[in-house]
Amino acid sequence: MRQQAYYADWRIAPLTSALSPEYRGEGENAGSGVSPMNLPLLIGLVVSCGVLMLLESRGLQTTLALKFKGDIKRESRLLAQYGQFLCTTIVALLVWQLDPPHRRGAIVLIVAVLATSLVCMLLKRLLSRVRPGRENAGRFLGPHWRHENERESFPSSHSACAVALSVMLTILYPQGAATFWALALICAGLRYVMDAHWPSDVLAGIAIGYAIAYATVQAIHL
Questions:
Q1: Would you list the DSSP string of 170-203?
Q2: How many helices (H) and strands (E) does the chain have?
Q3: What is the pLDDT of residue 127?
Q4: Bridge partners, 140 (sequence order)
Q5: What is the C-alpha to C-alpha distance for residues 133 and 137, in angstroms, rounded to an integer?
Q6: In the chain, what are the domain boundaries?
Q7: How distant, in Å, are the alpha carbons of 113, 135, 209, 215 from that of 169?
């Protein structure tokens, strides 16, 4: 009876009850009303992105292309997909199945990652930055509305979605924050190492994913 009552309470509880005490404002942060977003970190990412973009435009060699083989190649490709559609879907399903009190949080997780992906796609089509190693590499060619992979460098949507997923998982399961952030940063780093993006693309993606995830949390009143 006690377990049944718990789940009955969950069905009518606000989504905030599914989040960590730190985010709900309990404990040391009770009543503070301060957003958990690290604003100095976000500003630092944006400024660093701008500095790198300036250096890239001046012709500084900032790209890196490493070639992996065998299992390292296969594992790196897997890690580079962290935060993408299949990965996010599997994560949300696992949260839904294994942790019923966080089911609504699993839905918000999907919303945050999807919103991040859509914003990145829009920016890619509007700005049309050419990827490294292509003709006109690094240039912003202006709007285009058809999919052209070589002109969709900025921002890195893989990095953005990986960070958005890690932000949501960290909010739901703060004990795993180090692992979640390690996965996101490895994914972002691989996008650079594999020569798919300029460094500024990756930093922009990290900033976008971070901001949109927390904006989603605020918008849905988690």
A1: HHH-GGGHHHHHHHHHHHHHHHHHBTSS-HHHHH
A2: 9, 0
A3: 95
A4: 129
A5: 6
A6: 50-57+65-219
A7: 11, 39, 13, 15
Structural contact between residues 166 and 183, judged by C-beta atoms closer than 8 angstroms: yes
Beta strands in the chain, from DSSP E residues, in sequence order: none
pLDDT in tens, 52-91: 999 988 887 776 666 666 777 788 888 889 999 999 999 9
Residues near 13 by beta carbon (within 8 Å), at least 6 away in sequence:
none
Q: Are 135 and 141 in contact (CB under 8 A)?
A: no
Three-class SS state of 129: strand
* Global pTM value: 0.82
pLDDT for residue 171 is more than 80: yes
- Phi, psi angle pair for 129, to nearest 5°: -80, 135
Has residue 193 got a pLDDT over 50?
yes
Q: How far apart are CA 206 and CA 57, in angstroms?
A: 20
Instruction: Report the alpha-carbon distance of residue 207 to residue 18 in Å, rounded.
Output: 25
In angstroms, rounded to a whole number, what is the distance separating the alpha carbons of residues 199 and 195?
10
Question: Closest Cα to residue 103, out of 13, 221, 205?
Answer: 13
Identity of the residue numbered 220: I
Distance CA 95, CA 90 (A): 9
Tokens representing 5 are: 């009552």
User: 3-class DSSP state for residue 217?
Assistant: helix
